[in-house]
Structure formats: C-alpha cells, structure tokens
Amino acid sequence: MLESWSVVQVKRDRNSVAHELAYLARCNNVYSAVWLSCAPACVVVDLVFKIVILYPPS
Predict the structure, then answer these.
(1) Which tens digit of pLDDT belongs to each residue from 21-35?
(2) H-assigned helices in 1-58
(3) pTM of the model
(4) Rounded Cα gap, residues 28 and 31, in angstroms
(5) Which one, of 55, 52, 25, lies nearest residue 40 by Cα?
(6) Helices 16-27 and 41-54 meet at what angle, rounded to 10?
(7) In Å, how far from its chain's centre is CA 1?
(8) Do 31 and 38 meet the contact criterion of CB atoms below 8 Å apart?
(9) pLDDT (tens digit per residue) in 34-55
(10) How far apart are CA 52 and CA 46, in angstroms?
C-alpha cells in the first residue's frame, strides 16, 4: 500500500508515456485492454529510456 502520494502537473513533453496511452485510447474507440506484464508497443521505447535515466546501470 502507498504510504504517501502527491499530484504534480507535468508538461506533455515530459510525460510522453501518458500522452501516448491517451492518444491510443482516443484514436481507437473499439480497443480496450489491460496490460498486466507488458506495456503496449507504442510506449515501450519511452519506458525503457526513462528507466535507464532514472536508474542508470552501476
């Protein structure tokens, strides 16, 4: 369980994963999905890039 959380406004260019997911949802009215162990292809590159930046290899 989360011990704390906060709401922060982030510009679209800094939140490309959320932008791509919103675009996917908006452009495809029929598509409905839940991703449990993998991300949709349209955000995988951004996710990997952000993980490497946040947690660089030792």
Answers:
(1) 888 877 776 666 777
(2) 16-27, 41-54
(3) 0.52
(4) 5
(5) 25
(6) 170
(7) 21
(8) no
(9) 778 888 888 888 888 877 787 8
(10) 10
